[in-house]
Amino acid sequence: MSQKSQKLDVKGAGYGGTSTAIKRARVAADDRQGVVTGRRLVPTYVWFMLPGLILYVMFFIGPMFDAFRLSFYDWPGVGTTMHFVGLRNFANAFGDAEVYTALWHNAQFFIIVFILQNTVGLGLALLLHARLPGYQIYRTILYLPSILSLIVTGFIWELMLNPQIGLLNPLLQAMGLGALQRAWLGDPSITLIVVILVQAWQWMGLPMVVYLAGLQSIPHEVTEAATIDGASRWQVLVRITFPLLAAPFTILTVFCFIAMFRVFDIVYVLGGPLGEPDGSTTTLGTVILEYAFGGLGGSGAANALPQMSYAMAIGVLSYILLGVVAGGIMLVLRRREISFG
Amino acid sequence: MLAMRRGVTPWAVLQWLLLLVASVLTIVPIAVTLYSSFKNNTDFFYNTWSLPKVWHFENYVTAWTDGNMGRYFINSIVVTVGGVIINLLGATPLAYALARYRFRLNGFIYLFVVGGLIAPGQLVGISLLRWVKTLGLFDTYFSLIFPYAAFGMPVAILVLTGFFRQLPRELEDAGYIDGADAWQVFVLILVPLIRPAIATVIIFNGIGIWNDFFLPLVLAYTPEIQTLPVGILTLFGAYSTDWGTVFAAVMIASLPAVLAYFFLTKQFISGLSAGAVKG
Q1: Does domain A92-335 have CATH number 1.10.3720.10?
Q2: Distance of alpha carbon A322 from its chain centroid, rounded?
Q3: Domain locations in chain B?
Q4: Is the pLDDT confidence value at A57 over 50?
């Protein structure tokens, strides 16, 4: 019986603001909480936030600021000797050809994957959106690489491309295309492109499902109205559908940018820690790691000694660059978004 | 006209064939890797594309025992489960406070956490080595679990806060009137209602941790705590002449995630693109 009246009360609150009864109940709840937390010196929400914030600050923000701080020192990564060197690490990074080479490689990752996600990725989304027979099976298969780690992806493609066991060269041979055989992972002129394509193979599921979600959110009426007005299939696609995909385009561009400038795992598996062959596949990630730990196993690299502080300076610089460019991309692209929201 | 549209048009056939080609390009490398993991070296060199002449199941035994994949497998499970649980224990109440309580720093704290999405993971990673050594966590599972729990915070807050905001306030008021305190309302009433959002966070962070390579590479120096992605490379270093064992290890490392994906395809697809769709 009393429950019934409470329900009524609660409903009333929804319409006419919070009733006094509910306010009183909230205060009473806060008071009970206060007994536990020491007479409400600390509001309840602080206790809710504390564990999460401590975790986040201790194991994310803390080490990040530690890296910012150490990038002004000459700490090699081991021992306790360190001197404040001001901006020297940053100045050195600006003159480091290895950093520029790596940046250019990252840029190529971004350019190629960006083009592919807006052609292949978008195309697959459009094909799935047509809901042809069996499209759910296709979607499940096409998204599968996104579940795999890049290490696993790397080994899968090692099996395709490796000079000893690779399956692609024998296939080309069998098809009478023997002239196209290459040392896919051992030729400085093509390996970077091959590695980028492998990365794209693993990445493509994301743009596919995000564009698909975007397509599904476009009201039928809009495209139907255009069709009735005599627009061709192509006109509907270019004039109606694409502009309405501006929001997913923005977010996917930013995601792709951030991910491709952080790319590391796939290079490590297919090109090794030093971006073989001949450093043709180095990225910011491998260069930072190489400086941080000193050539990783010392395969005769130039940077045999660890230079942790220098590595951190490169990391900080690339972070600033990334943040600024990603923010800029976001601002510019957000302006051209239209929505039905 | 309508009947024509519904019928089989050349255009529909072409679209269907394009999907078929894309799916073949996706599935063939994976399928070939799967059956190649049962080959011995002779098969690798002489029957490149064909199925194994004899199925060498012992590749999996070698990878699991001699190749230490069993140990890496357990480590991956401990670190993934630990990271996901600790992340949720911290993130769920934090998201609730940010969604429901009004206070001056609310907007700042939200951006402070969600802004971590674009933070430099690799920079934090190499810095963490010194950090976990100082805290005395080096060479323990916690040197990976705590950082993973923290790294997962931005997406967790993004997803969970959005979900909490959609819940009607009346639910909490009903609880308060029945005499519950804030924690009871939160744990007994609200958490059960946001299970779909929690599932999204579990999938996103779970797959992220299971597949992560960089943190164990820079933080885990002994096989006792190293996880599968690093384990595969260690095994590859020792067994590089035994390709069957290498690919058995690759399969062992992917199987749990792939199986879970086939059972929960929809949740995985929406969960893994959560960051993109919510953002």
Answers
A1: yes
A2: 12
A3: 61-278
A4: yes
Residues B94, A13: C-beta atoms closer than 8 Å: no
Residue A327: how many CB atoms within 10 A of its CB? 12
B128 touches chain A (CB under 8 A): yes
> CB distance A167–B96 less than 8 Å?
no
B93 touches chain A (CB under 8 A): yes
pLDDT at B270 over 60: yes
Give the pLDDT of residue A32.
Answer: 53
Residues from chain A contacting residue B169 (CB–CB below 8 Å): 14
CB A142, CB B18: distance < 8 Å: no
Own/partner contacts of B19-25, CB < 8 Å, gap of 24 or more, are: B19/A124, B19/A127, B19/A128, B19/A132, B19/A135, B19/A138, B19/A142, B20/A138, B22/A120, B22/A124, B22/A127, B22/A138, B22/A142, B23/A138, B23/A141, B23/A142, B25/A201
User: What's this model's pTM, rounded to 2 decimal places?
Assistant: 0.89
Q: How far is A69 from chain B (nearest CA, A)?
A: 10
Interface predicted TM-score (ipTM):
0.92
State the residue for tokens 């319409």: A15
What are the residue boundaries of the structural domains of chain A, listed by start? Answer: 15-55, 92-335
The pLDDT of residue B161 is above 50? yes
| Residue A36 reports pLDDT greater than 50 | no
So what's the architecture of B61-278 in CATH?
Orthogonal Bundle (1.10)
CB nearest to A45's CB, from B48, B89, B103: B103
Mean pLDDT across chain B, nearest whole number?
91
DSSP A147: G
Q: Which of A130, A144, A160 lies at the smallest CB-CB distance from B26?
A: A144
Q: Which residues of B touch A62 (CB under 8 A)?
A: 131
Asked if B69 is an interface residue toward chain A (Cβ–Cβ < 8 A), one would say no
